[in-house]
Amino acid sequence: MSNKNSSRVFLCLAVTLALSVQAGCRRNATQPAPENGNIKIGVLVDLAHAGDGQSIKNAIEFSQDEINQAGGVNGRQLEILIVDYKGAADNGAAEAANLISQKNVQAIIWQSPTASSVAATSPAQAPRIPLITISPRDPKVTEQSDSVFNITPLDSSQGQQMGAYAANNLKARTAAILIEDGSAYSVGLAQSFADEFSKRGGQVSSRQTYKPTDQSFSQLIASISEANPDVVYVPGRDAAVATIAVESKQKGVKAVLLGADGWNDPKVLSVGGRALDGAYITSGYSADDPSPEARAFSAAYKRRFGGAPDQAAALAYDATKILADALKRSGSDRAKLRDALQQTAKFSGLTGVITFEAGRNASRPAIIFKLQDGKVYPVYKEE
Fold it and tell me: Which of 57, 168, 181, 313 is most buried per CB count within 10 Å?
């Protein structure tokens, strides 16, 4: 073969090889990664800002290890793919779509999606990949798709539970309500409490709004003291509710303070101190719960992560265990998983006995906690 012909052959081989590599790169960029036998679960958390993200990540990893050490699900290991979506709705939607279409996840646990971010993932959700939400800020998030499940207690449910407890167990007949300005969470809780309390013969004698940025609430508290209610319901969160409790104590308000799960926060307990003693809240979990299950989880979590688990951690732990249970019942069949989740009923979790209702929100019997000496103790569990 002449040098000229030999050069032409080598050139053709080089071009063919280059085109093959280029085509292979294009395929790798558009096709999902090859399977390795594990069951892949996506997790979207916000680790870029202060909040529940780290607790949720910790608890899911903890639950994953428990499940895998016990043999996995149907003989396969759980593989958790954690993505920090930085709390941005658009970024969350894009990451969810990527987890579904490129990573072949069976389901996604999503910290705090909005209705719009979930709706944006609908094309990728064509295979009906379940999304389990924790701490959603948007109560309409489950309405966007029949594959979205919410494990967090609804605000309306918490308000009803506290309204019933105040009337039936505390024998309260009058109530004042303090609502956090601009908070859909606080407004929703306040309305459901008022409706249930009134239905049971109670009277809401005062309903006022406060700004969470205010440094003092003395005028508000003076007005409450004048109305002399049996209970004061403050469905807020962060340090403002603790300051209200402290100033109420200083002003000699005798009413029993009531709150929601926003009070179950180390910052609130620290600022409020002894002024919170005797207050009651609705919540799903407390590290101070003396039940064997809660004590075991709390102790193991503390050993591994150096701090007590909060409610977000308990909810994330339950979400992972419920998902594993549904995977087992569905035979790890991606097409059947959504229906298996919908059929979840009376699942015994850290945050109560959980059932997914028709609207795919988790219902659980009411748990009322009492605050005492900086701790949160369960005092009432609905049968």
Answer: 313
